[in-house]
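I'd like us to work through together how a protein chain folds, taking it slowly. To get us started, please write out a protein record for me. Go ahead whenever you are ready, and we will take it from there:
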Amino acid sequence: MGHASTKAALIYLHRSGARDKAIADALSAMVEQAQKKEPEE
């Protein structure tokens, strides 16, 4: 990964994982909101 140590790499992975979850949660909320607005067929 190019980090100076294994510890640095693990810290980076942990933080990026938390960001990934936040992005996924926000996208899920947007999709759910859009689905509620769509007329049912």
